[in-house]
Each structure stands twice: as C-alpha cells, then as structure tokens.
Design brief:
The structure is a single chain. The chain is of the alpha+beta class. The strands form four sheets. Strands 2, 3, 4, 5, 6, 7, 14 and 15 form an eight-stranded mixed beta sheet that branches. Strands 10-9-11-12 form a four-stranded antiparallel beta sheet. Helix 3 crosses helix 4. It has eight helices and 16 strands. It is 26% helix and 25% strand. Strand 9 and strand 10 form a beta hairpin.
Length: 352
Amino acid sequence: MSMQGLAYASSEPVIAASYKVFPEDFQVKEILNFEPDGEGDHLFLYVEKKGLTTQEVQKRLMQYFKLPDRDVSFSGMKDKHALTQQWFSVKQGNNELRDAKELNSEQLHVQRTIKNKRKLRRGSHHSNQFSIRLRDLSERPKELIDSLQNLSLEGVPNYFGEQRFGRNGGNVDYARKLFNGSLKIKERYKRNLYISAARAHLFNLVLSQRVEEKTWSTYTSGDVMSLDGSSASFKPENWDKFLADRLDKKDIHPSGPMWGAGKLKTEDLSEALEEKIVSTENELKLGLEKIGLEQERRALRSMPENLSYKVEDDKTIVLEFSLAKGAYATSFLRELVKLRGQVYVVKKTEQV
C-alpha cells in the first residue's frame, strides 16, 4: 500500500522538497537499549554502511566469518539509500574470529567491536537518531519552522512507512498470494517480509481512520494505551484525570492492532472501529490469524525527540531528531513536506 491514500493529521503539506539526493542526506544512528558487557561468546560490531541493505551486510558477515544466518543477527533494518550506523552480532564461541576491520570497504566500515554474553535480538535498540537534509524546497526554509515546532509538540501519526511495503506496495499483494496458496515461499526472510507488510497495512488503515476522525491522539472508549517509547501496553479499567494528564504529556498513546489470532484487546467503540476497518481486508485478516500470530499493539502516535534544524541556504534545511524504534522518519516528513520521488545520486567510484 502506498502512503498516498492515508489521512494527514492536519492537512497535506504544500511545500515540496527532495530528499536522499545523496546518501549523506539521510543519516541514521541506531541506539541500543543496553550497553554490551565486554565479555562472552558473541562479538558485537557497530557498522556504518552506505548503498547496502541490512540483509546484504548480514550476508557479508556470514561469508566473512563462515557462519549460518542464525549466528549473525541485527536489531533493526536500515535504509539502503542512506548513510546508516547499526549493530550486528556474530557468534564467536571458543574460537578466535578474524579481524573485523578486514571487512572495511567504500560501502561498509566497522567502527567498533565489543563482546557480549548474549546474541543481538531483533528490536533490541531503543531509538534511532536521524539527520536529514531536505533540498530544493519550493518555499523558503523559514516557512517550515512553525510546522516543525507543532510536530515536536503534538507528534505525528505513527504510520508504517513506504519501506515496509516494497516497490509500488507489492509486498501486500505477495502476502495475499501467500495466504491464498498461489505463492509458495521457502525463504524465511521473504515470507516474514510479506507477513509483516500485511500487518502493517491493516494497522495503517485503522490509524488513517482514527486520523480522519481526529481521535488518533485522544482517548476513545475501549482503547488500549501504549507506553511512550515501549512495546508495553495496558487497558485502563477507568479513564480518569490522571490518565488524561499522562496522555496530554505524551507519556502514553492510544494504540492500534498488529493483527493476529485471538480476541482484540480493545473494547466498546475502539473494538468496533478496528473490527470494521480490518474486515474490509478479510483475506489478510484471516491469513494472519491462521499462521498463528498473536494480537499485539502499536502506538498510534509517534513523538520526535530532540528536534532541531539548521538552515543551510534558501533551498536547504537539515533536520535532526530521534524516534523510538519502529517509528519511520518518512512518516514524520510526510506531515511536514511533500516529498518528491527519491533521487539517489551515485558517485562514479561507488558500487550500489
């Protein structure tokens, strides 16, 4: 699914901008939610990559250290057409591994290594720090300042970004074929990718409806609330002033469904809306239930932290901010500017 059909929190932006003209225009740094302990059977590598997917780096590590994919792990997936820094881990055991610096190339650089007792698990990072340069603005950068301040205070709808859905939203179509049996997939990564796209699609539909109704950041009867920056959630027994204050302070957020088997955790008006919207995609709904995934929750609101900006010239502005894991920078940007199609300029010395 494209994000073009999803509702905006206020109105569709009128200022257009180009992004990812160069990899350095879109920079991401992954921040773990713990510090590696310095000893153990797993070697953690902090890797800077450019023009590579996270899976391509994983495969290079598998080949270099002669390990299967289960012994080479990462926490989060990062953009290919960007300059990103993220953690990987490789199982060391009692063997001395080769010097990881031999991996360094134009596209990949190992910045740090440290041992840890346990392997790196998916979703082990706390947040991502972004530095994003918007070029060729159709208006002067100062026209964006008020919008930036408002987004910093109020947050943005926590949509899954275009990256989750693949080229032209094709991953959702693959999920349909997977569920109806017309597509057979042996590769675990692709299968999980299509299933994740189906869940994200249903979540986005529910969130878009809440945005249309202006209830994406307010409490609706029967809501399950998510804790800010956490995957934890709870269902209030009674909605009171204390919880309303926490919602106003952005300590908690309404949540939406990550679809799976079992009864929805919501009740009343919230449950009715989720059932109604998700039932419009019954094939995806039933497919996700049959494969055994359980009902989970995801916050409807995303809060950018430590937001700052630097005006470079009349057509260029650099934004810096952090987002909790799972939140998409492109979902933040779409509330600010109308993004032109990605233009990735490859230098002659690069191989992408």
